[in-house]
């Protein structure tokens, strides 16, 4: 019986030692295979340099659009201020009316070229306010174009309402521009 137990003990130890050796080798192989699979499945993380390039590209797009928007706001504010004197006096003649219509057409021309620019997503709110301003400018042009000589004071009062609405919308557009540029860190 002693002999049987010794043989059984030796056989069990050989089996256990050989199983342990295979498990170690299998574990190493499994870990290596798993690492290879993980590398193939997961995309490579972008480098800091690549992230900075992407961020700088966006910042550059924002800056370019912000500069164009600032220039546009300055131009249209100047043109709107040049329209104001027609409402100060009640004696408006055809010459003054034509000058005012010319200024309104300049605003519309500036707006068309500005609208053709590629607009970054953060400036969508600015765009919506810009559209409201253009609606008021279009209404002002329509009312001013409908005026006939002699120009009645009520026609001028009606046009003044649209002018004041256009100025208010323009001021809202300026506020929206300032809040967006401040949020993006563009001054």
TrEMBL record:
Domain of life of the source: Bacteria
PROSITE patterns for the chain: PROKAR_LIPOPROTEIN
Protein name: Lipoprotein
Source species of the chain: Halalkalibacter krulwichiae
């Amino acid at each position: 019986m002693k002999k049987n137990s010794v043989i059984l003990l030796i056989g069990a130890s050989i089996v256990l030692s050989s199983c342990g050796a295979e498990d170690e080798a299998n574990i190493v192989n499994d870990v290596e295979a798993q690492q290879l699979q993980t590398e193939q499945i997961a995309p490579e993380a972008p480098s800091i340099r690549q992230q900075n390039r992407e961020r700088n590209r966006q910042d550059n797009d924002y800056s370019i659009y912000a500069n164009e928007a600032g220039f546009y706001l300055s131009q249209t504010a100047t043109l709107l201020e040049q329209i104001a004197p027609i409402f100060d006096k009640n004696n408006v003649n055809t010459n003054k009316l034509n000058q005012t219509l010319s200024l309104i057409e300049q605003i519309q021309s500036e707006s068309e070229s500005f609208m053709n620019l590629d607009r970054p997503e953060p400036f969508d709110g600015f765009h919506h306010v810009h559209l409201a301003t253009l609606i008021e400018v279009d209404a002002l042009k329509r009312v001013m174009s409908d005026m006939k000589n002699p120009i009645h004071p009520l026609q001028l009062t009606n046009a003044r309402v649209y002018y004041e609405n256009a100025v208010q919308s323009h001021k809202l557009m300026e506020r929206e521009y300032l809040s967006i540029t401040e949020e993006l860190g563009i001054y």
